[in-house]
Amino acid sequence: MSAGAEPLSLRLKVWRQDDEGSDGRFEKYDLAGISADASFLEMLDLLNERLTLEGKEPVAFESDCREGICGTCGLMINGRAHGPQQGTATCQLHMRQFSDSAEITVEPWRAAAFPVIRDLVVDRSAFDEIITAGGYISINTGAAPDANLTPIPKEAAEASFDAAACIGCGACVAACPNSAAQLFTSAKLQHLNLLPQGQAERWARTEAMVEKMEEYFGSCTNHGECSVACPKDISIDFIAWTNRDYIKAKFNNRKLLGGR
Amino acid sequence: MPFSADVAFPPSHKSPSAETRLTLTAHKKPPDSNRRRIPLPWPLSIYQSAVGKKWVMAITGIALLGFVLAHMIGNLHIYEGPIETHEYAEALRDLGGDVVPRTWLLWAMRSGLIFAFVLHIHSAFSLTRLSRAADERYRGGRNYIAANYASRTMRWTGPIVGLFLVYHLADLTWGHFNPDYVRGDPYHNVSASLSNLPVAIWYIVANVALAVHIYHGAWSIFQSLGINSPRFNRLRRGFAGLFSAVILVGNLSFPVLTQAGVIDDGGDSRVGEASSAPANLVSQTALAEQPVE
Ligand code: HEM
Ligand code: SF4
Ligand code: FES
After folding, report:
1. This prediction's pTM
2. d(CA B158, ligand 1 centre) in Å
3. pLDDT given for residue B191 in this prediction
């Protein structure tokens, strides 16, 4: 449908900031002849090529896989995390989503826990902290087990897989008016908590990850903004399950681990 | 990284090795690292977490919803007339009649409600503070897609309802604002207060705020408590809409129908139980000015 579409002229408003400590500002760039088939990141590449040729500092942004699986490329585009198209990461967004002579505002994720490193790049290591707190299974796996040795109900497997689709991009936090990380944390919790292999450490994991999350992020008020921003369409049902698991964990850990 | 057999169980989730910690957080500390300053013993520790506070907010929210519904339905006695309204008010004081002394059960319910309000408001303030500290403003603004008007105004509608509640008690329970207040005659007091147009408008505004608060709150409860099942999930929105609509229609009927003259005792209290109360004298005077029937 878009093949052969007219090239676009755009006015970009891009956030520039030298480092965490310094003040940032928007800078405007006019771009012409951008193919409607270019991805958003390719469009930024073209901008950077031009800036480099002009002897200016290119815009710092992050990307790796450019196919929606690594989670590094998140940008706030016209006030929406990952831009106007639902269910895709910034790298999967194409310029055909924008009209000719559109003004596009590009900002980094903003949350106290995601400090800006430079321009559009933020430090998401608060997410790593949450994973480090318990987002793993510490069992000795030994040799490969027989297939079907551990039966898993189809529904549980599918729900777990849906949660496991989280790429840790941070869009849920970026889109949330509370900067809450409930969607990320619950996805990382539930893909393990739903499976037999995740049961042994379920309660310790739940308490540890939720409380680590609360050290960095805000409190969920059930807006649902995270789920529509999420490139993997992760459901807020996982947040509900996590809320329940957390209270159960507060009871079970007391019994099992003597926790507070 | 493969684990060797000497992994401790339960694994120490709480403390990643000092080395990992250093590489991960070398340049920043949690924005809210000081929050859990004094760890309280279980089960108070649950309330120290944000998810725990949200549970408390939801459970107290359920109690408040129950109260708001019962209060609205009970007040419909007004449409039966002054005597019936008075009898209903008396019946509330007589609750638990033969078993406990008069008004004890009413006071027990009132205490529970006050407790619920205090916890609901405390958790609301505390979580709002947490979120304010965690969020940062987008210079170009943030577009909202899923968040609705109700969910985004909870921190306004809540305090409006709270302020209204204080006014409402002062007005109709303590009789501070109404020179024509007659203790023990709620019909008369409602009629006297709500026939005043600014007061009626304030009641309407506050009850619209309450309904908007409930529209998000009654949905939000399910999420906060983790009550989630594909069997009824799609009914939650409808439940919240219906609940807030019922409360809205019932509560708005009182100021609207007083203004329309349906609730009106002509300024004449017929059930002044404490006939020597000074407040009653005022209405006796008012009575004297009425043409004698
Ligand atoms: C009779 C009056 C009230 C009722 C029926 C009521 C009901 C509710 C309900 C059901 C919730 C949802 C709880 C949850 O999701 O876990 C809620 C949340 C909330 N309430 Fe109230 N509430 C009332 C009064 C107040 C007052 C006086 C305040 C004042 C500070 C307040 C502030 C809040 C806030 C800030 C939230 C959280 C909003 C959110 O998480 O999105 N409420 N309320
Ligand atoms: S839950 Fe979705 S939005 Fe949040 S980090 Fe994971 S993939 Fe990104
Ligand atoms: S670059 Fe990997 S998800 Fe976008």
Report:
1. 0.88
2. 6
3. 93
